[in-house]
Amino acid sequence: MREGHNNVIYRSDYQAPAFWVDTVELTFDLDPAKTRVLNKMKVRRNADVVPQALRLDGEELNLARVLVNGQGTSFKLENNQLVLENLPEGYEAFDLEIFTTCCPAKNTKLMGLYVSNDSFFTQCEAEGFRRITYFLDRPDVMASYSVLLRADKAAYPVLLSNGNLVEQGALEEGRHYARWIDPFKKPSYLFALVAGQLVAREQRITSRAGKEHLLQVYVRPGDLDKTEHAMNSLMASVAWDEARFGLSLDLERFMIVATSDFNMGAMENKGLNIFNTKYVLASQATATDTDFGNIESVVGHEYFHNWTGNRITCRDWFQLSLKEGLTVFRDQEFSMDLAGAPSARAVKRIEDVRVLRTAQFPEDAGPMAHPVRPDQYLEINNFYTVTVYEKGAEVVRMMQTLVSTRPSDPLGREGFARGMKLYFDRHDGSAVTCDDFAQAIADANPDSKLAQLLPQFKRWYSQAGTPRVKAQGHYDAASSIYNLTLTQSCLATTGQAEKEPFVIPIGLGLLGLDGRELTNGMHVLTQASETLSFPGLQDEPVPSILRAFSAPVILEFDYTDAQLLTLLAHDSDPFNMWEAGQRLAVNRALSFIAQEGLTAGDIRLDAPYVEAMRTILRHPTLDAAFKELVLTLPAETYLAEQLDVVDPQRIHAVREGMRQQLAEALYEDWQWVFEAHRESGAYRPDSVSSGRRALTGLALTHLCLASRTSGDTVWPGKAYQRFKDAGNMTDRFNALAALVTSGHALAGDALQRFHAMFKDEALVLDKWFALQAGAPDRGGNVLPAVKQLMKHADFNIRNPNRARSVIFSYCSANPGGFHRADAAGYVFWSDRVIELDGMNPQVAARLARALDRWKKLVEPMRSAAREAIARVAAKPDLSNDVREVVTRALAD
Ligand code: B3K
Ligand code: ZN
After folding, report:
1. Does the beta carbon of 384 lie inside 6 Å of ligand 1?
2. Mean of the per-residue pLDDT values for the chain?
3. Relative to the CA of 328, which ligand 1 atom is closest?
4. Is 303 in the pocket of ligand 1 (CB under 6 A)?
5. Could you give the CA distance from residue 266 to residue 280 in angstroms, rounded to a whole number?
6. 576-616 pLDDT per residue, tens
7. Residues 6+ apart with CB under 8 A from 501
8. What is the CB neighbour count within 10 angstroms for residue 492?
9. CB-side exposure of 462: number of CA atoms within 13 Å?
10. What are the backbone angles phi and psi of residue 703, rounded to the nearest 5°?
11. What digits encode the pLDDT tens for the residues 861-884?
12. CA proximity to 613, closest of 560, 576, 651, 661
């Protein structure tokens, strides 16, 4: 730690640990009020490091005993560390025994050992293990674990930990025990235990290699009928990793356990993944198609961590993207491969890019901007970000692209799989860096662009900010040559004033005026500016640039409407076809926003745009899912990113006005869509039928919106009927959302019925809360509704899912409702950040980020937002989590 930097941790300060822990034997006597933890370790000096005191991390623990080689020893407690200075002279290795107690029932941070619904769960990543026992709580200390769990048998019949169950039995006084041994060494952040009244869906599988495995999904009794999809997803994950990367399940038993109190999505503890119920439980009655898709990808993600994260882990937390970027890339590929058809793959790609551009691009341009491999942090939990995850995945994707050397492997999959194999050959069982990963991928593909450009390519890991690529075309009729100049730049970010050029793979096609494809290829931009020449062209072509979104950059090209309409109608690359539609919409939105005095009611969309949208809607061969993506207008946050000064109210009014126009101008087409895409037959969450449901849902919303001006009540009536009769949650919820979104009088009644129908289904109630907190604002009506929702008997701020469903849905996902001229939204926000920080700093810090982009706001919102942030910052005793976010937000 450097002096005077307020506990900031720097990547450049990394030092190997002074001690290794070879084995850990833990004994737990589980009790909600006072759990006893006996920790027996075999510790060894690291001979490569100068001799020094042993410092073990510990937080909120009651220390009862410390023994070295069975003898009492002197120690001190200093800044959440147990310091042993007088280790026995000459001992290179010794036994260390530590006995502590903790109080899981009072653990509202949900880090370490905590109680939820009368069961015990743990969360250790990143630094939660130190809340269970004193330890070298850092990922490069990998140890073998043996765990003995003891608890009351009636209250906690199921006792789980990592690895294999080697022994279990009864104890006196109605207690019982279970002993688990993990055959693999692991860092402390992958430790887990679960104890409680749980039931499991079980599945035995045989791997390609002929080995038998037991898969289990544990849930509370009563939820078993909602575990089939998670189990299917797990089986698909096991098969996929074997088929695509040759990586097999290395454990006899693989368990997933669901809990309803969880700070994030899920956690990849070795052999014992712990999940938020949101990413496990699904039935057609309670979960939407989106939920089914999310479960598939999160189950895949955590399972894939077993190799990318667990077998090879991070040397230090700055390397987080080593496991997260790579594993997100793997889960994206998994979902795409399961989706099957090229068009369904493209839909998944568009959805992923949408997340990147609406969440990561703003992060990269805001106060929390950081490189994929950050250089410093105050609180590591703040760096589980879309930059580390999603941009990190794009960096891995570019590596795959850049190891394609043969036409038979255009995406680079073979080369990338070779690189992964070398990565495991070199580093299996160790804790490594992002450099080690990139080097392995390059070394396995010595003839690739990646190998040639590796040092420059790695700037993606070290430079923050989203690069811009400006493309300018020039056609010379006399010589029949088309020149395309590509110029890259990247704005300064905190601590990084100047940026060096990136390596940017750019998928590039040229279309003739008739839409015919003239060329298609990949150009790798490495210089600040390069000009490409295309000879022998009879007319000026239409460039299709950054096909498949081949790099996480902002592409600037002054497309004419005619060019965009050509791309929308003819591009062979589905991503750029969709992108053309988005650009048409963005251009219109920006011009409406710029027109002084224009109100939502004045908005008129031009006929060519409306016709183009009609053509897509009526297209005979395009997928329904793709149509839904094209007809969905760019998000308000995406529009905001295109502007220097942001008036969220105006953006909201313009987008709503455009949507209203699409509703009215395409009225008959929406009707046709609704009737023509009706699903019949049994519910299946596959890509084709979920696409049809998504499109009919969009149609229903537009039809209800159209009725606002026509006064026609037929469609709201149909929506209400569908809401009542629907055979699955997707259709039911879409119908409810159509009524709420259009503000129809039937919405209130439908919401009440919905609540009554699902009052015992926590995850469905989360949707009910979120829909209301995220509803389009009409005259400032959402904030009072949100305050009312917080008084509802079913609201509980301590449950992260519920807090997110109300507070985050309003502050982070409803810009039109949140950014109020009277600043009441910001006051609400600061109250909630402070309130949450007292119980759960991780959740509070996420909420704190809702005002990241305050500097772009128009006055008086800008000053009001600043005041609200300053109000939070002035609060004494803030957690590091929130303090880091608000301090950065206020910095110049
Ligand atoms: N590795 C965990 C995230 C842990 C977050 C800690 N604040 C889930 C995942 O990315 O798979
Ligand atoms: Zn992950």
Report:
1. yes
2. 97
3. 10
4. no
5. 9
6. 999 999 999 999 999 999 999 898 889 999 999 999 999 99
7. 456, 459, 488, 525, 526, 527, 528
8. 12
9. 18
10. -65, -40
11. 999 999 999 999 999 999 999 999
12. 661
